[in-house]
Amino acid sequence: MPAPMPAPPQPAPSGAWLRSPAGLGRATAVLLGLVVATDLFACFADFLVMSVAGDAADGALDADLAHRADRADTLYATAGVAQGAALVATAVVYLCWLWRVRVNAEVFDASRHSMKRGWVIGGWFCPVVNLWFPRRIVLDCWEASAPWGARGGHAPVNAWWSVWIGSLLVGRAAYTQYDHAGTPAELRDASRLMLFSDGLDIAAAVLAAVVVVHMTRLQNRKVLSGELLTPAFG
After folding, report:
1. I need a labelling partner for 50 at 20 to 30 A (CA). Which of 11, 106, 140, 207 fits?
2. What average pLDDT score do residues 170-191 get?
3. What range(s) does the DUF4328 domain occupy (predicted)?
């Protein structure tokens, strides 16, 4: 028997029209690069704290160690502020980009989306469901943006989300351990875990940039294919 023909895409809901995600995609990728830069700075600060705490745990208490400890504390605090600022700026632009690609994806195929559009923003801030709602939304957009008749592989999205969740869990454990460190040895262990957490955050930011760039290109190519009812971005 011949294979059944795939169901045609459902029409876009009212209020959904195509707009180019290219500008927001580039801005998001640049800001994710800034996140990587601040995380690298944080890794340097973590390493300094780990080195000072390790020397203190070994009994090397002198004036030079005190100077290095002050410098490490200053850099650690500065890195935390830089990371927070970069994260907030990136989150704002990223959510604008995600909203844009979600609306475009509804124009491509409204049947691909299992969640209401409001969850594009709310899914990140609602406790518990923020562990999987954003991934599902990105996957729906990814599939709707794939070339006609094709189903895009999920590996880039799954890799990004897995590393992102891992960085959140390890980061929370590292901050807790750091706050409760009462001896140089405990501080050394906490800073080592913090270094691992910042490394995971770097990997998550790189993978997020891969997803952003690839989905932006998919959407541009789909419009330029000439098979849409709306021939160009509005």
Report:
1. 207
2. 93
3. 66-216
Exposed/middle/buried for 231, CB within 10 Å: 0-12, 13-18, 19+?
exposed
Per DSSP, helices labelled H in the chain are 22-57, 63-108, 119-125, 133-145, 155-179, 184-224
Question: Which pair of structure tokens corresponds to residue 111?
Answer: 């049947």
Determine contact, residues 53/68, Cβ cutoff 8 Å: no
Q: Mean pLDDT across the chain, nearest whole number?
A: 88
pLDDT in tens, 130-172: 999 999 999 999 999 988 766 667 899 999 999 999 999 999 9
Question: What CA–CA distance (Å, rounded) separates 41 from 190?
Answer: 17
Distance of CA 74 to the CA centre of its chain: 27
Residue type for position 91 = A
Contact 107, 139 (CB under 8 A): no
> In whole angstroms, how far apart are CA 161 and each of 13, 35, 146, 171, 219?
28, 16, 19, 15, 21
Confirm if 158 and 119 have CB atoms less than 8 A apart.
no
